[in-house]
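Exercise 7b. Backbone tokens:
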């Protein structure tokens, strides 16, 4: 379970964003965003549709180059590196080892035509595992950990339900024990009943693995359940930030007050 009492700020930051900005033509999709993420911390980025959440997540995960500012990441060796200064191969390695990315649409994060076992096993092979029996065993363990029966290991995710696909995507991402997981609306495409179960599972896994995560969501219930801290975005800017319970129970900004009273469209 999430421990909200620990002072996470004792360690060095895992990720630092400084003055991040991104424009699309004349549109400022993201403006001057700065923050630090600490090890074991879950940060939610909330705001209405079009507020710049996904753009920010893509900047943070080096999938998009900023027009201004920079992102630094503390590698496993303890050295903090500027992502823009890394080579493409090094960034790809980071994605295969240290980072996970959970997309709203599981089809974006899975290979739909190959077996569930291969979807999970592939990530293990990418970090150097090569013993077929071991890989299959670990894949089975992870499928069961996300409540998918091991008997479905040879089935392709296109035969899975939406909720199962999303759980498989989570297993594929977590099997290599990443240090940081990015999630963009991880429960967005699912039925409400399925969402609740998935959220519960994600909350347990994040707690058990001591993961750091950045979760984009327009659903404040997701932020409430998963995150220690929230950043509220409006028009590409961060307009309010703080501990999740404080921001959601006692929002300062009028926009956040509207968001909390769910007057704004999702
Ligand atoms: N590839 C793109 N090209 C042009 N405009 C974009 C692109 N991606 C996002 N935008 C625009 O940037 C703004 C922020 O979008 P986005 O980051 O997707 O918001 P959110 O995830 O909060 O819904 C929106 O106005 C959106 O239309
Ligand atoms: Mg989005």
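Sequence design result:
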């Amino acid at each position: 379970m999430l421990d909200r009492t620990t002072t996470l700020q004792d360690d060095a930051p895992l990720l630092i964003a400084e003055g991040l900005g991104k424009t699309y033509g004349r549109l400022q999709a993201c403006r001057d965003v700065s923050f630090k993420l600490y090890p074991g911390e879950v940060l939610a980025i909330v705001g209405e549709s079009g507020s710049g959440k996904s753009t920010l997540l893509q900047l943070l995960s080096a999938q998009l180059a900023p027009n201004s500012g920079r992102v630094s990441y503390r590698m496993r060796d303890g050295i903090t590196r500027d992502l823009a200064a890394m080579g493409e191969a090094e960034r790809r390695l980071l994605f295969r080892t240290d980072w996970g990315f959970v997309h709203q649409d599981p089809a974006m994060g899975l290979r739909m035509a190959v077996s569930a076992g291969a979807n999970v096993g592939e990530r293990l092979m990418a970090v150097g595992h090569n013993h077929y029996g071991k890989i299959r065993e670990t894949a089975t363990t992870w499928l069961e950990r996300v409540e998918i029966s091991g008997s479905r290991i040879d089935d392709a995710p296109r035969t899975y339900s939406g909720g199962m696909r999303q759980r498989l995507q989570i297993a594929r991402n977590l099997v290599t024990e990443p240090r940081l997981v990015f999630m963009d609306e991880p429960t967005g495409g699912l039925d409400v009943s399925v969402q609740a179960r998935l959220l519960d599972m994600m909350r347990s896994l994040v707690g058990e693995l001591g993961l750091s995560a950045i979760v984009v969501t327009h659903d404040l219930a997701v932020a409430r359940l998963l995150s220690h801290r929230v950043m509220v975005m409006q028009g590409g800017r961060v307009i309010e930030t703080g501990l999740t319970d404080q921001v959601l129970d006692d929002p300062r900004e009028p926009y956040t007050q509207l968001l909390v009273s769910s007057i704004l469209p999702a």
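Instructor comment: The longest helix spans residues 192-209. Residues 1-7 have pLDDT under 50 and may be disordered.
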